[in-house]
Amino acid sequence: MSIYDYDLFVIGGGSGGVRAARLAGVMGNRVGLAEGHRMGGTCVIRGCVPKKLFTYAAGYSEAFEDAKGFGWTVKKPRFEWKKLISAKNREIARLEGLYHKGLENGRVKVYGSRAVFVDAHTVQLEATGERVRAEKILIATGGQPQSPNFSGQDLCITSNEVFDLEMLPKSIIIAGGGYIAVEFANIFHSFGVKTTLVYRGELILRQFDRDLRRLLQEVMVAKGIRVICNTLLEHVERNNKQLSAILSDGTVVAADQIMLALGRVPNSGGLRLERARVAVDAADAIIVDRYLQTTVPHIWAVGDVTNRIQLTPVAIHEAMCFLRTAFENKPTALDHDLVATAVFSHPEIGTVGLSEEEAVRKYSRVEIYKTLFLPMRNTISGRNEKMLTKLVVDGESRIVLGAHVLGPDAGELIQLMGIALKGRLTKDVFDATMAVHPTAAEEFVTMYHPNYIYRDGKRQDN
Ligand code: NDP
Fold it and tell me: What is the pLDDT of residues 377-421, one digit of tens each?
């Protein structure tokens, strides 16, 4: 007879926590899970899933315009925010139901409550005060938007609120230049909202390849999104029905809504981690080793609460590694290298591996292959938006180090390029691959000659 109530107790019902709990249950373990909000976490409730639904909705705005070039007559399409929100809510409720069903199938006992540590084997459910003891504990509490302290910060929204606004604003200011800021600037602009993006750097999306950043920013500005760079949002005031953002250069911009998209921080506060002696770093991220073990051997952590790569597939993969290590006696470390990712802007960005700038810093001989072209769908539609495909190649081993794309369906495309890069394929394999014609993706296998190369950091044009 075990001295514990559970073999595994999971704190947090997001992508990582639910996957770990469900499969641990299916394996025959006694599993409990605490979630104080809705099941599904950031990704399902107020992140990737509703965002992608909004992205699809936004895409129709350009599709209606483009259709004319292909012979369609489109009469005054009208967008209704409330209808989108209701449809989105129905879909999120459906997915949340599936998450609950999956947990039921794994015989996981779900507690609708936040949980805090009492000691290293005991957690207390805040809603009822009940205490449960578990042999192993997994912390999967995710993250939350970072909100720097400035005057008027409480007047602003974040990605937590944006999915449920009562009304579509007529104008919005978005602070930040990362994934969320860029995606929402494009979404709101497509819905006809006067959109201003305020970013502290010189060019949006700092971690991405410079060609992608420059081109996307140019396209966004050409569409009519106001992009203000090298500037901080310093404070916010309410003026009658509108808000005013006072920027570091003294400019005042007024809008109906101001959204902060300034990064996300780990949700570790309030867990009373000190009672279990689980250590956090300076950013409050739970410290884990390569096997996701915290400073306490039977307590583990996965996903955004560890603040490494804040992406849903990473959290899910980490949950699978945790299960193998903790329950199958097969220590499995997650390989965080070559994680493909997309920014769902209009046009999209897809990227995997090293940017040109990173490769030049790390390799002595680098070859750059790139092509900028008008994709076929943008020809007779009259949409003057070019597509970019780019490969970054190690000139010595010929291994493709980075693949980058800006254009329609870049997210879908980069998923498959991720396999090629993970397989450490050389440029010669790309060259030997037959093109699928006519597609935009064929450019990736028909760029035979480098546009330029670098030797020891110095660019040499052909
Ligand atoms: P990001 O890290 O992508 O971007 C944060 C932005 O805020 C950066 O532009 C950063 O500037 C800026 N910033 C940070 N602190 C400050 C500050 N104090 N003052 C002014 N600007 C500041 O975070 P997001 O919030 O956009 O998204 C959070 C995470 O969620 C992402 O990192 C990503 O992992 C994930 N995500 C993934 C998506 C996808 O896969 N498509 C979509 C949405 C989110 P600087 O660049 O100069 O540091």
Answer: 999 999 999 999 999 999 999 999 999 999 999 999 999 999 999
What's the sign of the alpha-carbon dihedral 394, 399, 404, 405? positive
> 12 falls in which pLDDT band (50, 70, 90)?
very high
Residue 399 makes CB contacts below 8 A (sequence gap 6+) with 393, 424, 425, 426, 427
Cα-to-centroid distance, 46 and ligand 1 (Å): 16
Interval 46-75: pLDDT, tens: 999 999 999 999 999 999 999 999 999 999
Catalytic residues: 437
265 CA → ligand 1 middle, Å: 10
Ligand 1 center to residue 329 CA distance, Å? 37
What residues does ligand 1 touch, defined as CB less than 6 Å away? 148, 176-181, 183, 199-201, 206, 232, 261-264, 310-311, 341-344
Give the burial class of 422: count Cβ atoms within 10 A of its Cβ; 0-12 exposed, 13-18 middle, 19 or more buried.
middle
